[in-house]
Amino acid sequence: MILPGQNSSGSEGRVPGTIRAHLRSWRWRLWALALGLLGIGLAFVPLFDVLGFELAFVMALGASVAGIDLAAALVRRTIATPTAPLERAVGAGRIVATLAGRTIATNLLLLVAPLAILALNGLRVRNCDWRFGFATYFLMPGLGVVIASAAGTVLGLVAGRRRRLGNALPFVFVVVSIGAALWRFYAAPPVFSYSWLVGYFPGNLYDEDIALGAPFYWARLEQLAWCVTALAALACVLDAPTLSPWRRVRRPLRGRWRAMSVAFAALSVSSWLWHTSGRHGYATDAEDIAAELDGRYQTEHFVIRYASRPEIVRDIARIAEEHEFRLAQVVRSLGVEPSETITSYYFADAAQKARLMGAKNVYMAKPWRREIYLHHDDFPHRVLRHEIAHVVAAEFGDPIFHVSAGTVLGIPLRFNVGLIEGLAVAVDWPDHFDRALTPHQAVKAMELLGFAAPVDSLLSTEFLTVSSARGYTVAGSFVRFLLELHGPERLRVLYRTGGDFELAYGATQGEMIARWRDVIDGVELPAEAAEVVRERFRRSGIFTRPCPHAIASASERAGELAAAGRLDAAVALIRHVCTLAPDEPRHQLA
Asked: What is the pLDDT of residue 448?
């Protein structure tokens, strides 16, 4: 058997035959080709075509899956290679460490070609923050491959010579990991996720200021610590001559003390991090949030968990009354009452909300948990009724997520985002209380300005690619038309089925859109009124704007500098923002 790091004659320092064979294998070449093609494909997708967060996210997922599969395959190839028995002097710990090192090295090679492709693509498209791009590439797909390779080494040693088990275990592990991340999103308030597969998922598209902060590094440290724990534990039980953890280890206890010491130390670190993950901000749960939102106020239909800040404590009774009042309005519009108490997490500000559940500049609801997530705002709260509408709509949503979704093999997977958000806008009418126009008038204005999005494209996940101001308004106008024309009962049927117009209205989606178009065509709107809302609808979606993350990050930092009195530094940073987006007047104004 050939020890990784040696050749068949026992000399070190040359790439062993097993490594060469592995790099020439169809499996390694297929994965290398797949990741290369992925890089080429992303080079033509807006927002994913530059070194940055979105690119790193996709590449991390692909490279991590490739890494864990190839690592297990390399270990299996090493075990199956015939050679003279290993010397007893070669310890199991060294064998495991060398195996892990070789799998990491060979798998990191997979990231070179995509990196070169996207770096060269930066000569074709604009990349506004090369440093952040390279950092995310190293920290997300780079560290992801390291962790995946270590995990694949463990799984390969566990499977041994059993090819079917060795082929299956890495993908089972990936599926379980994805399932765990989805379950956490479903079962806990936070929308963010820190996973070994991708590194970091922020949970929504509307917070453009994305940074890999301290929680990311704590999460990566825990993931690496668990890898070291598993590798060291295997070294304690590994039979060196056969590389099998299932054979009886003939070594005396004193021959395993180093591996046992490493395993104990790594287990202590990983366990401590796991138990304090909420405190470190990468795996917070409802208890962690409740510990910081230490105020509690209960009404007939709500439990409000709030931050005990003086301005909130002073007004909490009024805030609670507004909750009940807005709920009464939603119930009157939709014709149903909530069957469960609604929990309202009321954060002190956007920064606290971002730290504890992940949505900084976005208000959110999780209808299946009967929860809404708000931060303190002036009275009347601009989005309270909108978020309550999401939770009340859970009464007639799908049975799992309690939103509007069509089924695939009986599972609600075809989410109709236009109906989900359109219903909330339609019920929250007029919305924000300070809008110059109703959504019907706003759609008319958008048409005059040339900004209107086609409503049929919004009644799907394509909604997420459109500017939020345009998408919410158009979808809300259409759903309001349905609500006013046929009442809440048929709208509830449409929502529950994920958009079955023929079942709900006896007409096709196109026919109902045509009727709505007749209403919009009849809206009276003075020409000058459209100019009033031009700025609101002018901006396009995140996928078509240049440098959205770099601009958001620099603007946020400039605001912090200005608040600290460092006006010269703030002005210099905003001037840099103006060079990134010279056609955006908001930055010139700032």
From this structure: 80
